[in-house]
Each structure stands twice: as structure tokens, then as C-alpha cells.
Design goal:
- By secondary structure, this protein is an alpha+beta fold.
- The chain has two domains: about 90 residues; about 90 residues, General secretion pathway protein M, EpsM (Gyrase A, domain 2, 2-Layer Sandwich), CATH 3.30.1360.
- Strand 1 and strand 2 form a beta hairpin.
- The longest helix is centred in the first third of the chain and has 88 residues.
- It starts with 6 loop residues before the first helix and ends with a helix.
């Protein structure tokens, strides 16, 4: 019977298996290393791209902030201009107010029975001082003032009697509140609501 010694073959086979496993392990580690390097390069590229986008966004934000500041400044100037225009319009509309008031007053005076001593118009209040022949003349003048649609209220402040050369006269003082135009009331309401919003 022939005996064959298989030990050297088995040891060689074992060595071959170990070599193969080691080469697979090193190859796997090499692949993992290459994948990690590739992933790292890809991530660093994405980080650079995001950083450049952030920088671009910051620059654009600064531009828009500058534009917003300019817009706010222009709005402020427009508000000042509107206020000035409103003042000019008010002055323009009130420019002929004293003339109209005097014209209306002269048409309401009862001829040869009364005359004015003073006429003071401040804001929406008109104070009238005058002299009349009797109480009825003062009452008639007050009625005329109320019917003129120029005043909302007409109030008698004082009515005094005084004598000049044995003639009896009535000295009177009236306080009248001007009728406010609807447009002015609307503007006042708008101004109040805009102040409340601010």
C-alpha cells in the first residue's frame, strides 16, 4: 500500500487562503479609504458651495437693506411733503376766510340800528362786540347769524346798558362757533386714525 503525505499540500493551501483573505482585506480597506477620500472631497466641495452662497446672500441682503433704507428715507420725505402740501392747501383755502367773514357780517348787520366795536376771529371761534339800539336788535342779529349757515352756535356772552348823551344803548358780546366743513372733519379723522396706527 502506498502512503502519500498530504501535509505540505494542506499547509500550502492554508497559506494561500490566508494570503487571499489578507489581499481581500487590504483591497476592501483600500476601497473604503478611496470612498472616504471621495466623500470627503465631495463634502468639502458642497461646504465651499454653501459658503459662497452664504457670502452672495449676505452681499444681496446688504444691497436690499440699503435699498430699504433709501425707501424708508423717501417715504419720510413724502410724508413731510404731504404735511407741507396740507398746510399750503389749508392756508390757501383760509386765505380769503377773513374777507368772506367780513362780507357776511356786513350783510347780516341791521342797518342804522347797530354797529360793530370789534370782531375777533381765532380758529373756529368768532367773538363779536357791538352796540345796538335795543334788545330786539341784538336778538334779530343773533337770529340772522344762526340762519346764515356760517356758525353752528351763537351765544350771547354779555348784554349791558349804557347811556350816551341821554340816549340808551345796549352793549353786547357774542361768541360764535364756525361750522366745520365735512372735508376738514374727514381729514381730522384720517389724521387721528393714522396716529393711532403708529
Amino acid at each position: 500500500m502506498i502512503k502519500i503525505n498530504l501535509l505540505p499540500f494542506r499547509t500550502a493551501r492554508k497559506k494561500e487562503n490566508v494570503r487571499r483573505q489578507l489581499s481581500i482585506l487590504f483591497f476592501s480597506l483600500f476601497l473604503v479609504f478611496i470612498l472616504l477620500v471621495y466623500y470627503n472631497i465631495k463634502l468639502s466641495g458642497q461646504v465651499k458651495e454653501i459658503k459662497s452662497k452664504v457670502e452672495t446672500t449676505k452681499i444681496e441682503t446688504a444691497k436690499y437693506e440699503k435699498i430699504n433704507n433709501e425707501i424708508a428715507e423717501i417715504k419720510g420725505k413724502l410724508e413731510i411733503l404731504k404735511t407741507k402740501m396740507n398746510v399750503i392747501n389749508t392756508l390757501e383755502s383760509n386765505r380769503y376766510e377773513p374777507v368772506r367773514l367780513m362780507d357776511t357780517m356786513t350783510s347780516l348787520v341791521i342797518p342804522k340800528r347797530m354797529w360793530f366795536v370789534s370782531l375777533d376771529a381765532r380758529g373756529n371761534t368768532v367773538n363779536i362786540s357791538g352796540v345796538a339800539v335795543d334788545n330786539q336788535t341784538v336778538a334779530d342779529f343773533m337770529t340772522r347769524l344762526e340762519r346764515s349757515n356760517l356758525f353752528e352756535t351763537v351765544n350771547l356772552k354779555t348784554l349791558k346798558q349804557y347811556i350816551v348823551n341821554k340816549a340808551i344803548f345796549k352793549s353786547f358780546e357774542l361768541s360764535c362757533a364756525k361750522r366745520v366743513k365735512k372735508e376738514v372733519k374727514k381729514e381730522e379723522k384720517k389724521a387721528a386714525t393714522s396716529k393711532a396706527k403708529k
